[in-house]
Amino acid sequence: MKIGRQDQHSSAICASNERTIVVRGHDLVGELIGNIGFTDHIWLLITGALPTASQRRILDATLVAIAEHGLVPSVQASRLTLAAAPEALQGAVAAGILGCGSVVLGSAEAAGQFLAEIAAHASTDGAVDAAVARVVGEYRAAKRAIPGYGHPLHKGLDPRAQRLFEVAEQTGTSGRHAEIAHAVQRLLPQLLGRALVINVSGAIPAVLLDAGYPLRALKGVPILARTASLVAHLLEEQLRPIGFVLSHAAAQAIDYDGSAPDGFVPSRDS
Amino acid sequence: MKIGRQDQHSSAICASNERTIVVRGHDLVGELIGNIGFTDHIWLLITGALPTASQRRILDATLVAIAEHGLVPSVQASRLTLAAAPEALQGAVAAGILGCGSVVLGSAEAAGQFLAEIAAHASTDGAVDAAVARVVGEYRAAKRAIPGYGHPLHKGLDPRAQRLFEVAEQTGTSGRHAEIAHAVQRLLPQLLGRALVINVSGAIPAVLLDAGYPLRALKGVPILARTASLVAHLLEEQLRPIGFVLSHAAAQAIDYDGSAPDGFVPSRDS
Amino acid sequence: MKIGRQDQHSSAICASNERTIVVRGHDLVGELIGNIGFTDHIWLLITGALPTASQRRILDATLVAIAEHGLVPSVQASRLTLAAAPEALQGAVAAGILGCGSVVLGSAEAAGQFLAEIAAHASTDGAVDAAVARVVGEYRAAKRAIPGYGHPLHKGLDPRAQRLFEVAEQTGTSGRHAEIAHAVQRLLPQLLGRALVINVSGAIPAVLLDAGYPLRALKGVPILARTASLVAHLLEEQLRPIGFVLSHAAAQAIDYDGSAPDGFVPSRDS
Amino acid sequence: MKIGRQDQHSSAICASNERTIVVRGHDLVGELIGNIGFTDHIWLLITGALPTASQRRILDATLVAIAEHGLVPSVQASRLTLAAAPEALQGAVAAGILGCGSVVLGSAEAAGQFLAEIAAHASTDGAVDAAVARVVGEYRAAKRAIPGYGHPLHKGLDPRAQRLFEVAEQTGTSGRHAEIAHAVQRLLPQLLGRALVINVSGAIPAVLLDAGYPLRALKGVPILARTASLVAHLLEEQLRPIGFVLSHAAAQAIDYDGSAPDGFVPSRDS
To answer: What's the rounded Cα separation, in Å, for the pair A18 and A35?
Structure first.
């Protein structure tokens, strides 16, 4: 059946014939393979144009920053899945990517939306602090967390965030969104009653939006970065498996508090 | 319950404390962010060591080569999924990655295994042609396709494959696996009775294995590359949606040939 | 790292030892297998108690109603995925389930939330029509669609919805939520300026909530039902494949409108 | 591009028009909703015909048997995913289903294939024991595990398997595949040198194939059953979350054994 009212039927990403593949207007074989890096290609695919050196360096920095942080939930889900289904590495990667959500890892997107809302208000009336207060107030009223601030481990400071802002300064791309991100950090104690530092998921959209990366592709950055990490963990899982060790330890941490037939004694190992 | 016999419980990828994140022995913030590119980081995560310039260029070339080829099945599955579930971009990416299978896109892994089997036999007795004949014969006996050869569109020649071998020559990394890949192409007419050219999924493992990339992480290359393409398609899907146009056209191509109550006339639109 | 503040560590669903598996307090082997139906077991797993005959009939009716509607986007995504990755049927099922989103198929959950909000207001002040007007007004103000109303194919009437309300009348479980669902349909012309009929995703939460099924498990109903449909389509895909026919027809419906090198002519087949 | 040689373009599962939805030849609204159970509908969708009472009871018994077994890897992956991405319940279900693999949960398919191979040989020459010896020998030669035998927790006997064979006796559907499954169990000590009992994933294909359920849809049974379990666990995860408790306990069980900068002390909590 025909769902929705989609009346355009074009795509501007790729076309090909038997001899040539055109990607974003470029001849893939004649111009791109062997001549540009993967990060250039990511920027080209997403934005339609090759990046400047500064744009490439910012995108590289964000991808390196968010790729790996140990045995986090998405990595665990992925390794458990490979242990159970070794025939399909793509399934284990997919399981890991599904954990790039609004709470963990995927919050760069929500933080970008938050910064962009403040930027929109600030560009109208020029006053960043007032725009911050307004948008933070709206989030509080809707009982929404402020995305991109605070971290369970890096409490005093998320060193990755600080380093990303430093790189943005060095490349000369730092701009309005970085300014807003810091204004939020400065104002949160009075607006929320407690201090929260910018975390890596707050810094990523700030430096990327300042560099011209599109808002609605922000979630692609943690997803791409984490995919690299997942491939590394899944290679290790093949060579030195821990999937069932993870699973066993996790299950041991949970008690059964439902009812049971008389005399039933749960196994510690089930 | 305790499944399997996994008796080691270590990982060598990442450790952290409140101030420092260590990735593969390097201080993530102090050494890596802003100083290395994403491709370097991918190689580091997967192999445990930073790549040489040649290794980086080969990995870049393969990722650029395989990222995008238009509205292929995995891209369609991803765009259909975002159209139906716009609240979860990660779900649409995951749906696309699940199509990196043994038939489409994921065959680089099988092709790498095929080349490695031939290399193992050839290293024992020195004769590449005999090793090719033996392994191709085993695949034929098991009615398995020869992975990495032939392409539905690029029939005479897959220009991406040719370009990858050219880059490998330029970087000086070309070696035994590229030699074997070409020997297979040369021998297939007599072994199979028909000519098939090396495709991009045959060239990728050849040049990567020659450069020292690990066999069991080969599938990560098309998965990572395709993730970049999916993010680009999903941004376009948000801005210029075609998901339901794709779905409508696909459904129109299929007839119903089951039974039906008397007098029932199917809608062309259902 | 420790994420969030989860301070309880119990589950009440299952416990086991070497001889016995306890599910929701029942001995799985001694009491359940062979003695109850799958629908009973679904209700037991989700709610903690076996259903009454009426509850079972309502849940059966909703699962049967929503399972299958032809080559919809989620089914297409699933068949495309199996064609590309036949080694992992679970991946193809997962790709299909990922399309149970807020726009297509998954809207039963949003519709249930909508009906529950109206019910909460109505229970306070007793007036259903006023509660409907209030909540519809809030949705309009937030530019949200009214979930559970209107259908692209079944415009005059969604016959599945009507049948579900009929079954609910027969089982005597019909109650406040069905009443509200109909009040919404009656009031929409004046509140929205156009008539929209209750669709199957509006009827499912109405009859299930009236029967005592939990709100936050509503999305499980289309997911479970669609999983049955996906298994059927994936068996057919193995026996009479159409995955690449779907993909080819879909790609043919889309034009390339990006730039290209001079003289490039895209293949109709790429 | 056109992949593969698919030359038929029909489907026999569903057709519809504005008033009527036909599923497997039946009027969905007029005949099925409210009149048949979900298990009947599953059988109808998959096989094309409504089940007999015996077939329904067998399918019910297998779905009830395999649905739930506590915090197994697929359930953990699913709960971790919901904790990280609560906005997409379908993503958490998909992550769980991806763990229905060849090692855990999905082995019913491989066991069905194994039984079917023996049945094919036995039907030619009439001797079950010889056919068992031949196929077990082939699996040993290929270093493949015997699918459907042995269990990490239920070592002496998998009580679910025993119960399924009992139900098959009661319904009068027990036949050649059950006979073969038991012959394998009897012969394994001499063929493998150790005893292994039939587990639930061995019994499921035996009783289903005997009842006329199709071999290539066998994996659908654990997938469907587990989906019900996942919905229950994901409701509990919303009401009494343990996702991050699982994740924390799992991470604590793993040591870092890679290199690190001088003086670095990993946090126990990272």
So the answer is: 22
Using CA coordinates, name the residue in chain A closest to C9: A254
pTM of the predicted model, to two decimals?
0.96
Question: Do the chains contact at C242 and B254, CB–CB below 8 Å?
Answer: yes
The full 3-state SS of D91-146, as one line of letters, equals HHHHHHHCCCECCCECHHHHHHHHHHHHHHHHHHHCCHHHHHHHHHHHHHHCCCCC
pLDDT digits (tens, 9 = 90+) for C221-248: 999 999 999 999 999 999 999 999 999 9
D101, HSE (Cβ side, Cα atoms, 13 Å):
24
pLDDT, tens only, D156-203: 789 999 999 999 999 999 999 999 999 999 999 999 998 999 999 999
A147 contacts chain D (CB < 8 A): no
Show Cβ contacts of residue B248 under 8 Å, excluding neighbours closer than 6 positions.
A1, A2, A3, B269, C253
DSSP B115-157: HHHHHHHHHHHS-HHHHHHHHHHHHHHTT---TTB--SS--S-
Side-chain-side CA neighbours of residue D39 (13 Å): 25
Strands, DSSP E only, in chain A? 10-11, 14-16, 21-23, 26-27, 255-256
Whether B246 and C252 lie within 8 Å, measured CB to CB? no
CB proximity under 8 Å: C 63-122 to A: 69-70, 72-73, 85, 87-88, 90-91, 94, 103-104
Nearest CA in chain A to C30: A261
C263 CB within 8 Å of a chain A CB: no
Chain B: nearest CA to A24, how far in angstroms?
10
> What are phi and psi for residue D183, nearest 5 degrees?
-60, -40
Enumerate the residues of chain A whose CB falls inside 8 A of the CB of residue B217.
Answer: 231-232, 234-235
Please tell me which of the candidates C72, C90, C253 has its beta carbon nearest to residue A9.
C253
pLDDT digits (tens, 9 = 90+) for D45-71: 999 999 999 999 999 999 999 999 999
- Read off the tokens for A5: 């009212």
